[in-house]
Amino acid sequence: MSTHLRYIQGYPEPILDQVEQLIQQGKLGVWLKQRYPNNHSITSDKALFEYTMDFKNRYLKKSSPLSKVVYDKKIHMVNNALGLHTYVSKVHGGKIKSKNEIRIANLFRQAPEPFLRMLVVHELAHIKEKEHNKAFYQLCCHMEPEYHQLELDARLYLIHQELTHQGLNQQELNQQEPAAQEQLHQKSQTNKKG
Questions:
Q1: pLDDT of residue 150
Q2: Which residue stretches belong to region Disordered (predicted)?
Q3: Which of 54, 81, 94, 162 would you label with 73, given CA atoms 20 to 30 Å apart?
Q4: Which pLDDT score is estimated for 168?
Q5: Domain segments of the chain: what residues?
Protein backbone atom coordinates (compact mmCIF):
# COMPACT_ATOMS: atom_id res chain seq x y z
CA MET A 1 0.00 0.00 0.00
CA SER A 2 1.26 3.46 -0.92
CA THR A 3 2.22 5.67 2.04
CA HIS A 4 -0.25 8.28 0.78
CA LEU A 5 -3.09 5.84 1.37
CA ARG A 6 -2.58 6.07 5.13
CA TYR A 7 -5.35 8.71 5.16
CA ILE A 8 -7.84 6.08 3.98
CA GLN A 9 -6.41 3.11 5.85
CA GLY A 10 -9.28 0.91 7.01
CA TYR A 11 -11.50 1.58 3.99
CA PRO A 12 -12.52 -1.45 1.87
CA GLU A 13 -9.93 -2.86 -0.54
CA PRO A 14 -11.89 -1.90 -3.72
CA ILE A 15 -11.84 1.77 -2.65
CA LEU A 16 -8.11 1.61 -1.91
CA ASP A 17 -7.53 0.05 -5.35
CA GLN A 18 -9.59 2.74 -7.10
CA VAL A 19 -7.71 5.51 -5.31
CA GLU A 20 -4.33 3.91 -6.05
CA GLN A 21 -5.32 3.71 -9.72
CA LEU A 22 -6.36 7.39 -9.80
CA ILE A 23 -3.02 8.33 -8.22
CA GLN A 24 -1.01 6.18 -10.66
CA GLN A 25 -2.87 7.71 -13.62
CA GLY A 26 -2.41 11.23 -12.25
CA LYS A 27 -6.19 11.76 -12.23
CA LEU A 28 -6.99 12.21 -8.54
CA GLY A 29 -6.88 16.01 -8.78
CA VAL A 30 -9.06 16.02 -11.91
CA TRP A 31 -11.60 13.75 -10.21
CA LEU A 32 -11.73 16.01 -7.12
CA LYS A 33 -12.02 19.17 -9.24
CA GLN A 34 -14.95 17.69 -11.16
CA ARG A 35 -16.78 16.83 -7.93
CA TYR A 36 -15.82 19.99 -6.05
CA PRO A 37 -15.00 22.73 -8.58
CA ASN A 38 -15.02 25.73 -6.22
CA ASN A 39 -13.38 26.69 -2.95
CA HIS A 40 -15.40 28.41 -0.23
CA SER A 41 -14.99 32.06 0.72
CA ILE A 42 -14.94 31.52 4.51
CA THR A 43 -11.35 32.61 4.99
CA SER A 44 -11.41 34.71 8.17
CA ASP A 45 -11.77 33.41 11.72
CA LYS A 46 -14.83 35.65 12.15
CA ALA A 47 -16.53 34.15 9.08
CA LEU A 48 -15.62 30.64 10.29
CA PHE A 49 -17.15 31.38 13.70
CA GLU A 50 -20.38 32.63 12.10
CA TYR A 51 -20.50 29.64 9.74
CA THR A 52 -20.03 27.23 12.67
CA MET A 53 -22.60 29.02 14.82
CA ASP A 54 -25.20 28.66 12.04
CA PHE A 55 -24.83 24.88 12.30
CA LYS A 56 -24.74 24.93 16.09
CA ASN A 57 -27.87 27.07 16.35
CA ARG A 58 -29.69 24.87 13.84
CA TYR A 59 -28.77 21.45 15.29
CA LEU A 60 -27.35 21.87 18.81
CA LYS A 61 -29.37 24.73 20.33
CA LYS A 62 -29.25 23.42 23.90
CA SER A 63 -25.57 22.43 23.91
CA SER A 64 -22.73 24.21 25.69
CA PRO A 65 -21.74 27.55 24.16
CA LEU A 66 -18.76 27.94 21.84
CA SER A 67 -16.25 30.59 22.84
CA LYS A 68 -13.88 30.35 19.88
CA VAL A 69 -13.70 28.93 16.36
CA VAL A 70 -10.48 29.56 14.43
CA TYR A 71 -8.24 28.29 11.67
CA ASP A 72 -5.03 26.89 13.14
CA LYS A 73 -1.74 26.70 11.21
CA LYS A 74 -0.16 24.14 13.54
CA ILE A 75 -2.99 21.69 13.98
CA HIS A 76 -2.27 19.23 11.13
CA MET A 77 1.46 18.97 11.81
CA VAL A 78 1.36 18.86 15.60
CA ASN A 79 -1.80 16.84 16.26
CA ASN A 80 -2.06 14.88 13.00
CA ALA A 81 -5.68 16.04 12.91
CA LEU A 82 -7.87 18.16 10.67
CA GLY A 83 -9.83 19.76 13.45
CA LEU A 84 -9.80 19.90 17.23
CA HIS A 85 -12.53 20.42 19.77
CA THR A 86 -11.04 21.50 23.08
CA TYR A 87 -12.29 22.52 26.49
CA VAL A 88 -10.61 25.32 28.33
CA SER A 89 -11.33 25.14 32.06
CA LYS A 90 -10.90 28.28 34.12
CA VAL A 91 -11.52 29.00 37.79
CA HIS A 92 -13.65 32.10 38.15
CA GLY A 93 -14.89 33.16 41.58
CA GLY A 94 -14.45 29.72 43.08
CA LYS A 95 -16.31 28.05 40.21
CA ILE A 96 -14.81 26.09 37.36
CA LYS A 97 -16.09 27.22 33.99
CA SER A 98 -15.27 25.36 30.83
CA LYS A 99 -15.29 26.89 27.38
CA ASN A 100 -15.57 24.99 24.13
CA GLU A 101 -13.19 25.86 21.31
CA ILE A 102 -13.00 24.51 17.77
CA ARG A 103 -9.85 24.72 15.69
CA ILE A 104 -9.81 23.81 12.00
CA ALA A 105 -6.61 22.98 10.12
CA ASN A 106 -5.46 25.97 8.08
CA LEU A 107 -5.29 23.70 5.02
CA PHE A 108 -9.10 23.99 4.84
CA ARG A 109 -9.06 27.80 4.66
CA GLN A 110 -8.88 27.36 0.88
CA ALA A 111 -10.79 24.18 0.15
CA PRO A 112 -14.18 23.14 -1.18
CA GLU A 113 -17.00 24.16 1.16
CA PRO A 114 -18.35 20.60 1.63
CA PHE A 115 -15.03 19.58 3.25
CA LEU A 116 -15.17 22.52 5.66
CA ARG A 117 -18.81 21.68 6.41
CA MET A 118 -17.88 18.06 7.20
CA LEU A 119 -15.12 19.19 9.59
CA VAL A 120 -17.34 21.72 11.35
CA VAL A 121 -20.08 19.10 11.77
CA HIS A 122 -17.50 16.62 13.12
CA GLU A 123 -16.14 19.05 15.70
CA LEU A 124 -19.61 20.23 16.72
CA ALA A 125 -20.68 16.63 17.28
CA HIS A 126 -17.90 16.37 19.89
CA ILE A 127 -19.75 18.91 22.03
CA LYS A 128 -22.40 16.25 22.70
CA GLU A 129 -20.49 13.02 22.04
CA LYS A 130 -16.85 12.93 23.15
CA GLU A 131 -16.01 9.54 21.60
CA HIS A 132 -16.21 8.37 17.99
CA ASN A 133 -19.06 5.97 18.66
CA LYS A 134 -22.35 5.12 16.95
CA ALA A 135 -24.17 8.07 18.55
CA PHE A 136 -21.39 10.42 17.40
CA TYR A 137 -21.66 9.34 13.75
CA GLN A 138 -25.47 9.42 13.89
CA LEU A 139 -25.27 13.03 15.06
CA CYS A 140 -22.80 13.86 12.26
CA CYS A 141 -25.18 12.31 9.70
CA HIS A 142 -28.12 14.19 11.22
CA MET A 143 -26.31 17.50 10.68
CA GLU A 144 -24.84 16.47 7.29
CA PRO A 145 -26.54 13.52 5.54
CA GLU A 146 -23.55 13.08 3.19
CA TYR A 147 -21.09 13.05 6.10
CA HIS A 148 -19.44 9.70 5.33
CA GLN A 149 -18.92 10.46 1.62
CA LEU A 150 -17.55 13.91 2.45
CA GLU A 151 -15.18 12.43 5.02
CA LEU A 152 -13.78 10.02 2.42
CA ASP A 153 -13.50 12.76 -0.21
CA ALA A 154 -11.78 15.10 2.28
CA ARG A 155 -9.25 12.34 2.93
CA LEU A 156 -8.70 12.04 -0.83
CA TYR A 157 -8.23 15.81 -0.91
CA LEU A 158 -5.48 15.42 1.73
CA ILE A 159 -3.78 12.75 -0.37
CA HIS A 160 -3.94 15.03 -3.41
CA GLN A 161 -2.58 18.00 -1.44
CA GLU A 162 0.30 15.89 -0.16
CA LEU A 163 1.12 14.55 -3.62
CA THR A 164 0.91 18.03 -5.15
CA HIS A 165 3.11 19.49 -2.42
CA GLN A 166 5.71 16.74 -2.87
CA GLY A 167 5.54 17.26 -6.62
CA LEU A 168 6.30 20.95 -6.18
CA ASN A 169 9.20 20.14 -3.86
CA GLN A 170 10.57 17.69 -6.44
CA GLN A 171 10.30 20.36 -9.17
CA GLU A 172 12.23 22.78 -6.95
CA LEU A 173 14.91 20.14 -6.42
CA ASN A 174 15.11 19.47 -10.14
CA GLN A 175 15.48 23.20 -10.82
CA GLN A 176 18.22 23.46 -8.22
CA GLU A 177 20.01 20.37 -9.51
CA PRO A 178 21.59 21.99 -12.62
CA ALA A 179 22.88 24.87 -10.50
CA ALA A 180 24.33 22.43 -7.96
CA GLN A 181 25.96 20.44 -10.77
CA GLU A 182 27.48 23.65 -12.15
CA GLN A 183 28.89 24.50 -8.71
CA LEU A 184 30.44 21.03 -8.44
CA HIS A 185 31.92 21.41 -11.92
CA GLN A 186 33.42 24.80 -11.00
CA LYS A 187 34.89 23.37 -7.77
CA SER A 188 36.45 20.46 -9.62
CA GLN A 189 37.96 22.87 -12.18
CA THR A 190 39.36 25.01 -9.35
CA ASN A 191 40.87 21.94 -7.67
CA LYS A 192 42.54 20.88 -10.93
CA LYS A 193 44.12 24.33 -11.31
CA GLY A 194 45.39 24.38 -7.70
A1: 97
A2: 175-194
A3: 54
A4: 46
A5: 1-35+146-185, 41-130
